[in-house]
Write a structure and sequence with these properties.
It is built from 1 helix and 4 strands. A hairpin with a 4-residue loop joins strand 3 and strand 4. The longest helix has 8 residues. The protein is globular.
Length: about 80
């Protein structure tokens, strides 16, 4: 699996990726900026070669759980 750095890319005409935080087996995690909301976001990007695995895609797209009342945690946007 080749690492790719998407820093500087814009996803869905909305999420500008500013910094790669980590790169692991399932994909990369980036800090970014939500142009629509004017807020900093964290974006998970799957590795392209895993997108043919239906089970992986289902797990990756499953809604995340964000506990209520924990300072510093944001909602899942998409």
């Amino acid at each position: 699996m080749a690492e790719r750095d998407l820093k500087g890319k814009v996803l869905k005409l909305r999420y500008g990726l500013t910094t790669r935080v980590s790169e692991r087996g399932a994909g990369g995690v980036y800090l970014g900026w939500d142009e629509d909301e004017g807020k900093q976001v964290v974006v998970r990007v799957p590795h392209e070669d895993l997108l043919d695995d239906d089970d992986f895609v289902e797990r990756f797209l499953a809604p995340g759980h964000v506990p209520e009342g924990v300072p510093g945690l944001a909602a899942v946007l998409e």
